[in-house]
Each structure stands twice: as C-alpha cells, then as structure tokens.
Amino acid sequence: DARGRVNATLGSLRERTTAEVAVVVVPSIGDLSPEEFSEKIFTSWGIGKSDRDNGLLFLIVPDDRVARIETGYGLEGVLPDAVCSRIIRESVAPAMRRGDLDGAVTAATAEIARILTDPAVADEIRSSQSGVSGNANEGLDVEVFLNFIWIVAGAAFIFSLALFCHDLWKGRK
Description:
mainly alpha
C-alpha cells in the first residue's frame, strides 16, 4: 500500500516537474559510507534529466539507522543540505523510531514532492527532455540484486560443502 502511494506521488511529481526521484531501501550498505553508496546508485542509474540535473535519491538503511537524500546539482538550490536534513529529522526519524518504515518513506516523499511542486520553483527544475532518464527505465531493484547475491553465495556454499563431504566420504573407503 505504501509503495503504491509513494509511486503515485513520485509519478505525479515527475509529470508536473520532470524531476526524477528514486527511493532505495536496503538492509545494509556494507563497508561503504552512505554518501559513497548513494552517489554510486545516483550515478549508475542516471537519475534526473541531463539538461537540468533534476534527480534525487532517497536512501534508507533501516538496520544501520541511516537516511540520506542525494540531489542532482539542479535541485541543490531548491533542496539544499539544510532542507534535506530537516526532512530526515522531522519526517523520517520520528517514524523510524516508531518502527514505521512505510510512514518514514511516505512522509519524506510527500514533503519532497510538496517542495518541488511549489510553483515558485517548479519552472526552475523543469526539463525540456521527455521520458525517464538514464538507466531508470531498466527498473534495477537493489533489493532484488542483493537477494541474487545471497542466493549465489548460498549455492556456492552448498556446492563447496557437497565437495567437502564427498572428499571426506571418499577418504573413509
């Protein structure tokens, strides 16, 4: 239900302003800093239109208690670091303290959409390019990718265990 509301909010935002917002929720980012992780995703997905650099990545890592908003240069004037920090402090953190991940994502995306659709700034960030930019059309889902990695690692472990048991069994004969 929350995913549907967030997608509807962000779809409406993209139609009204051409700004592209991606929400990424992952359990862990490994050894990377939140800044490195979000920048890598932002760049590899090509979020935002190239003529306005009007992309935004909203990252939440619940297990690490991390939230970050990465903006393209075209949105920095509208959503400077201080505003992004306020959104996290006032919208994300209280919901996360209650264990309400859906509420955190929904509240933050609603606030981001509210700010970006303000008529005073909407024209400033609007691109003349149409469609979805970069690799966003491919629909790369980080959660699916991480699950794939776990499956491959598990299969490799089982295969190694089977070889070990086979060698152990062979050695007893």
